[in-house]
Amino acid sequence: MDIQELSEKIKDKSVFCANLLREVEGTVIGQKPMVESILTGILAGGHVLLEGLPGLAKTTAVKAFADACKLDFKRIQFTPDLLPADLLGTTIYNAKEARFETRKGPLFANLILADEINRAPSKVQSALLEAMQERTITIGDESFKLDEPFLVLATQNPIEQEGTYPLPEAQVDRFLLKVKVGYPGKLDEMRILEAVSGSGLRTPAQVVSKEEILTARSLVRDVYIDERVREYIVNLVLATRDPASIKKAELIGFIEVGASPRASIGLSQAAKAHAFIQGRAYVTPEDVKAVAMEVMRHRLVLSYEAEAEEISAESIVQKILDSVEVP
């Protein structure tokens, strides 16, 4: 379809985004950026890593989206003694029928909440990789295709070190977005107190169906992105590998490993989803800037020098955004 036809279709099909955000924000008070990022991940078809202190409504937000979208939802509490079979499922021998049967695990759902994902050991983290990347799960000698949409929303606590396992870079790279969740403002916290002391936080009503989500995803893929905007995306990612190319030689010693090509793909997907939420059929550089921090912050491996000088990935990404020429 041409751009005008696509624009009209997106204007019509993106109306639910405002209704969905409004419905979820009625339950998840004071966390608008997190709510918008989760919606971006759902529309872009990418997994989301939520990092924040306990009690900041990360779990509540994921459950609210499941209710508002009427998606099959499973919550998995990650613990040090968790086994891969606890996620994937296993084969069980049926003595009555004298044969093995497949018992599917909780990963067979649309929306997965991997709560405190960094509390599980590496063998469990590895069990997630196939599901996150290939959308398939292998149990024994049988592979199963996961139903779409399939999305992993993982939470982790950044301050606890005891009993936690840092996520491998290969797995972190498979999260489209890393969202840092902060405290709500004073007025929002007063609203939270008022809601909890009254009838409690309400359960969101369904405002969109699974079929509408899948239709929206297909339209997001069709959102137009100009050649100059694509070049801008690539320049942002290349700057993390060669800071001297943007005359930021002082960053060279701070970045040990730059962002992978998944960052370029992720910036394109997330920017398209951001444009769709705004009801537009084309991507602007502002869409790229709006999602760049959450797409890139977890894909940089910082050097010991950066850690010693307390240089954060966020500050490096911001310097790159300020330095790369905008088309």
Produce the secondary structure layout.
Elements: H1 3-13, H2 15-25, H3 32-44, E1 47-51, H4 58-69, E2 73-77, H5 84-88, E3 89-94, E4 99-104, E5 111-115, H6 122-134, E6 136-139, E7 142-145, E8 151-156, H7 169-172, E9 175-180, H8 186-197, H9 210-222, H10 227-241, E10 255-257, H11 261-277, H12 285-296, E11 301-302, H13 304-308, H14 313-323
Parallel strand pairs: 1-8, 1-9, 2-5, 5-8
Antiparallel strand pairs: 3-4, 6-7, 10-11
Can you put this structure into words, describing what you see?
This protein is an alpha/beta fold. The chain folds into two domains: 1-222, Rossmann fold, CATH 3.40.50.300; 223-327, Helicase, Ruva Protein, domain 3 (Orthogonal Bundle). It has 14 helices and eleven strands. Strand 6 and strand 7 (142-145) form a beta hairpin. Helix 2 (15-25) crosses helix 3, helix 3 (32-44) crosses helix 11 (261-277) and helix 9 crosses helix 11 (261-277). The radius of gyration is 21 Å and the shape is globular.
Low-confidence stretches: none
Give the count of helical stretches: 14
**Tally of structural domains:** 2
At the third CATH level, what is the topology name of the largest domain? Rossmann fold
As a whole number of angstroms, the C-alpha radius of gyration is 21 Å
Specify the CATH homologous superfamily of the largest domain.
Answer: P-loop containing nucleotide triphosphate hydrolases
Distance between the termini: 26 Å
Q: For this structure, what is the CATH class of the largest domain? A: Alpha Beta
